[in-house]
Amino acid sequence: MLISEFFIMVNQPTLLSSQLFYENRVVQVTLNRVMLGFWKEIETRRKRSASFNCISKDADHHFLLVSEIVGARETEEEDQTNKDGGRKHNVLLYPYAFTVSYTERTKHHCWRCKDIIFHCLDEAQCQQWVQTINNQLSLLSIRPKRLLVYINPYSGKQRGKWIYEQRVAPLFSRASISTDVIVTESANHARDHLKTEVDLKQCDGVVCVGGDGMFSEVVHGLVSRTQSDSRVDQNQPNQDLVPCALRIGIIPAGSTDCICYSTTGTNDPVTSALHIIMGDSQPMDVCSVHHNNTFLRYSVSLLGYGFYGDVLTDSERKRWMGPSRYDFSGLKTFLTHQYYEGTVAFLPAKDNLGNPRDKIKCRTGCHICEQGANNGQLLSGDHVYKMAEENSDEETSGDGVWRVIRGKFLAINAACMSCACPRSPRGLSPYAHLADGTTDLILVRKASRLDFLRHLIRHTNKDDQFDMSFVEVHRVRRFSFAPKHSNVISEVDLSETSGKKICNQVCTAHPNNDTGHSNWNCDGEILPHADIQVSVHCQLIRLFARGVERGTTFDTYTWSVIEGSNLSWQA
């Protein structure tokens, strides 16, 4: 922490100052609009802390940012005894107490809610401290006061309701956040409810408790509702979309929770709840997927054709297996080793937005994302690109020069984020960015099983998965794909489980691709068409998150909350 930053915090006008009892000693406690500080009465020298982790300590001085306080409340007598390790003489000398709850960073990007208890001489003093602290917190305009919460009771290990009630709801209550909780009863319940029934003006954010599928439901409902209210036609591929005003919070309770991991660095429900309470805001890109002039879906993490599409298609036939179906279908798809012919066209990103192999990770306060937002975001125009009939490798449209690649592919993937998760800590594209208006397009050409296996294994270690002759990756703003053999998925396709057909696929060394086709995996859902057009919409939504932090020291995000009074504080 810089000395100048420390003095700015200390020299704020004092709101309240008292001598209180803390940890068996009398301390001078001072509150201003930025920090809560307390000093030993006996000692006069004050050492400055070299680092900052929510509450900073040295031998004489402790201080805590107001922006990192969850809430303050009067302490019950039973809690006083438990917290103070049974020191009842504290209660006799200082019979009244109040508790300040705050966030503390721990290992692996996890946050925890900690309590600190101060004892007072009289009840009026205790109430004054609680009221003054909570009044300052209420002035933080970035913090939500009312939340709409959707709980998927069936996601992951079916512990979503328990996670919310036992680990999240008590924190919201401590932060004086009111909630309207809806337990979903069927697929797309949250999406349809957001699109038609909710008065969005009555809440400050939407929280989903579940996995990536639940988050996708909320995104579709909120984005579609925003476009409908703004009279924007989602069926137009080149249409600029209106950003959503409400932020979305994710309480991870699914099997993978890729989006939560990529935006906070962990899949911990308490950490996510604290990000929501703090009012963090992380912009995020969204891809719109169209077939001709028909809107299909939005994507926020992975669009996968070939390998990942086949894994999802096969796993949908085996839902009775539970989460293990993904491992089984992944092995079977790898052994089948199917490749697909098609044509990919894309509009490369320019404007110095880096490249997928530049080793610049997306972190809190990412300058690449800031630059992407300032560069005009989604490029729009009246000219719609059409696939060329000639064997050229470039085409020109109203948006610029498109590159065209034809070939045989084992996989075609588009990642708007790293897609990191505990099983793949670096993700599908380790240096993809959350909010730069681009997606990383990964083309995996036909190769041997051994080479493809090496490529897959590199997703789980520190080796560069793109450093292979049959793999190429491009940072793009738009792309389209046209398979050699078009197809439409039906319910009959997903229900076919002929053992003979499966055995023939696995045992065939060189699959016949004359009639072969794959399906697009769009954030865990199968698209009905393989011929698609994809556009990236820069910072279309915002999450209750701040991106993966660089460390546990005092960071630029926290400092912006302190000094950015127009952003964080009501006048």
Automatic annotation (TrEMBL):
Gene3D superfamilies, per this entry? Answer: 2.60.200.40, Probable inorganic polyphosphate/atp-NAD kinase, domain 1 (3.40.50.10330)
PROSITE patterns per UniProt: DAGK
Q: Which InterPro entries would you find in this protein's record? A: ATP-NAD_kinase_N, CERK_C, CERK_PH, Diacylglycerol_kinase_cat_dom, Lipid_Phosphate_FormReg, NAD/diacylglycerol_kinase_sf
Query: Which GO molecular function terms does the record list?
Result: ceramide kinase activity
The Gene Ontology CC terms held by the record are:
membrane
Check the UniProt entry and state the signal peptide residues, or none: none
Please give the superkingdom of this protein's source.
Eukaryota
**By what name is this protein known?**
Ceramide kinase
Please name the source species. Salmo trutta (Brown trout)
